[in-house]
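@channel sequence for tomorrow's demo:
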Amino acid sequence: MTAPKGTHAFTTDESAASEEELDQAISEVLTEPEFSKFSTRDSYSVNEWYGSAIASTDRGRDSMTSPDTGVLYYGDKVVGLGDNKYQHSHQNACERVCLYALDAIQKGLSLKRVFVVFAGEGFKESSPGKIKGSTGKMVVRAKHFTSLVNPTQEAMRTKYRDYLRIIVEEEALQ
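C-alpha cells (generated this afternoon):
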C-alpha cells in the first residue's frame, strides 16, 4: 500500500522484525575474531559525505541517514553500508535502496559494498523464478549490490562473512 501524501515515516511490525533479524546476524558476525577490525556507526551526515550544507532538519541541524546495517568501518575507513527492505506487496518502496548506491559512489566504494536484504511477501516468487512488479525489477537491478532475497538467518550470517572477507582482501590491496 502506498502511504497517502503527507504521511509521517513509519515501520511496520514485520519490517521491524526483519530488520532485527539482520541486526542479530551482523552483530554475531562482527563479534568473531576474524572481523575484529570492523565496526559500525548508526548514521552519517549526507552534507559531510557530499561537502554540502543543504540537507537539514526542521531545527537546522544536519539531516542524518541511518542505514539499517549501519555504516561499516574497517579501522577508521568507511568501507560499506546497506539496508534491509521489507515489502509486503510488489510496490516500489524498495527502490529507495538505490539511495545507498549513490552514497557509496560518493565515498568511492564499489556497489558490491552495498549490502542489502530484501525480505517479505513482496519478494516471494509469483511463479518459479519470477517476482512480480517493482520488487522483481529491484531484485534484477540489485545484481550490482551484495544482496539476498528472503534469506534465512544462517544465510545472512554466511553472506555477511563473505562480504567482510572480500572487503578485507580489497583493503589489503590498497
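heads up for whoever presents: The domain at 13-34+79-172 is CATH 3.40.50 (Rossmann fold).
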